[in-house]
Amino acid sequence: MLTAEVIAYHAAERPDSIAFAIDGRETSYATLDGDVGRCGRALAAEGVSRGKLVAVGADDLYLHCLLLIALEELGAPSASFLRHEVESPHPLRARADLVMAEPHFPVEAARRNLVIGDQWLQRIRTLSESDRAEPPPATDEDPIRILRTSGTTGAMKMLMLRRRQQECRLQRYAAQYQFTRASRYLVSMPLTVGHIYGAVMACLRSGGRIVFESPERMPIARTIAAHGVTDATLMPLQLKQVLDTLPGDFQKPGQLTVCSFGAPISAGLRMRALERLATDVYNDYGCNEAGLIFLTRSCDDSGSGPIWPGVTVEIVDDSGRPVPKGTAGRIRVRSEAMVEGYLDDPEATRRMFREGWFYPGDSGLLLGRRHLRVLGRADELLNIGGGKRAPVELEQLVLRRAGVLDAGALSIVNADGFEEVCICVTTDGRHDEGLQARVLDALREIQLGRVIIVKLDVIPRNDAGKIRRDRLRQIVEGALRGVARGDAPAGPG
């Protein structure tokens, strides 16, 4: 199935229904269908054909989506990149046969580039629709989309979705969001995020509406109210910021589902969201490599949920041998949506894809046959006096109890060679008095020994909202060196 074919169906059946509402501008399915056809003609005239990789850089959400849909119809795989990513050499652009970017994206280093924007869009709208070419026959093995993942290390890895894998994922997005023609999906992150790309395409296939307002024009809470948004994807920190800034007279929507991913959402934050903002809040646990693994709607901090149909999960020891049920170990997964490996990175492929399984690097345990609990990153567990603790466990306690904006946990080796817990926090500056005591009190139930508390301006996160642990460690080590010199803001607790 092609997204363009489904859009053409909606355009024929309901030509005036709205596909996009962006910064006060509405676009119907009929207009979208016509633009897709004309865009395909323009791309073909530029030499774009089956198998030719096109990298797209566009802040304009409609233009960006239009290009991705037209490229899919032509059988040309697409990839997306952000404006700041053009400032240094980039393996994605080096691999691309064509780079298409708005004028403010400097892409001189690209092998071949085409400047796009409002004028380009207006120009293709002068093309005739009467001789719209039929798309080439599609196969399940066609490469369709390059996704990128950096995990928590900041080292970018690329992976290619084939048509069969994309179709599986779009069906899952449609099912987990329960998209219909009445759906209005709020875009709150760029299309470089695989989850956002998938949710947008799944919503369009369902005949729903894509909503976007630039933050300068309208904050998220106001956008939700003004557009009658029914579905939104918000990272835990985004959700907290929305709740913290809700106007006192904000009327809770009659229907709003909030999906969060990238990090666990605390029970306290979930309850706040259900009370003031949403009718349903759930976490999506998955990865770009394998797709969705489970959803959880539980109002506790267990980090567990039922495994999605079509997904197989095993818990194994360090040697790859399955462990008894209820025993903690390393998670490995396989699914219909799983890719075969990384592009141009055979070493990482060998390490993380083995014998038909993908190893996401998390530790967990199975509670029954089809219920998974995630304990944290297997390689990030803190070894405190011989006891293993997942950093996310400490982060959630601090976020829930200490009144901070964001938190990151890691361990620092002291002069005696022992690991000590370091808690990094960001605040709004209004309630910093007693901050150290509040953080320590939040962790009072856990035997951690000495705790170092460092206040930062920001906790470094990647595009998917995951803490960049390597960068956080660099920042903390620099801050603590400054404490030794007496010239950096950090507070040992």
Characterize the structure shown.
With 493 residues, the chain is α/β, with parallel strands linked by helices. The chain has a domain of 111 residues: GMP Synthetase, Chain A, domain 3. The protein contains 14 helices and 27 strands. Strands 2-1-10-9-11-12-13-14 form an eight-stranded mixed β-sheet, with helices on both faces. The protein has a five-stranded antiparallel β-sheet with strand order 15-21-20-17-16, with helices on one face. β20 and β21 form a beta hairpin. α12 crosses α13. The longest helix has 17 residues. The protein is globular and about 75 Å long.
Helix and strand arrangement:
Blueprint: H1 3-13, E1 18-22, E2 25-28, H2 29-45, E3 54-57, H3 61-74, E4 78-80, H4 91-95, E5 98-101, E6 113-115, H5 118-124, E7 143-149, E8 157-162, H6 163-177, E9 184-186, H7 194-205, E10 209-212, H8 220-227, E11 231-233, H9 236-244, E12 257-261, H10 267-276, E13 280-287, E14 291-296, E15 304-306, E16 311-316, E17 329-335, H11 346-352, E18 353-354, E19 357-358, E20 362-366, E21 371-377, E22 382-384, E23 387-389, H12 391-401, E24 406-413, E25 419-426, H13 435-442, E26 451-455, H14 469-485, E27 491-492
Parallel strand pairs: 1-10, 3-4, 3-5, 5-6, 9-10, 9-11, 11-12, 12-13, 25-26
Antiparallel strand pairs: 1-2, 7-8, 13-14, 15-21, 16-17, 17-20, 18-19, 20-21, 22-23, 24-25, 26-27
Helix pairs in contact: 1-2, 2-3, 6-7, 9-10, 12-13
